[in-house]
Design a protein that fits this description.
The protein is mainly alpha-helical. The chain contains five helices and no strands. Helix 1 packs across helix 3. The protein is elongated, with a radius of gyration of 18 Å.
């Protein structure tokens, strides 16, 4: 049984957050969402699309790498839609301690 008030659960609070792949998916979706939000804001303010494109500002000199980042954000969105199929996410069991993460998340 996990302490739902502290939110710590098992493994120091890492359970119930999904596998490492889904953590990367979350980061990519945040990066993509913030980037496109800034691009839209820049367009509304009458600036060029590239003026507020953070990915382009950071990787502008490397268009291939910039394209890879955009593809990864798209793949992350598809993975978020369909969910992760790894053993940990499918069964809801933490590999570190063996506790039921689905039970912990529902508390």
């Amino acid at each position: 049984m996990h302490d739902s008030k502290s939110g710590s659960g098992c493994c120091g609070g890492h359970c119930g957050h999904g596998c490492n792949t889904m953590m990367v998916v979350k980061v990519l979706l945040i990066v993509g969402g913030v980037n496109w939000g800034l691009v839209g804001l820049g367009m509304l303010m009458g600036k060029s699309m590239e003026a507020w494109n953070v990915v382009h500002m950071i990787l502008g000199g490397m268009p291939t790498l910039e394209g890879i980042v955009y593809v990864l954000v798209g793949v992350a969105a598809v993975m978020k839609i369909f969910g992760c199929r790894c053993k940990m996410c499918r069964e809801g069991v933490c590999d570190s301690c063996g506790s039921d993460t689905k039970e912990a998340a529902s508390m």
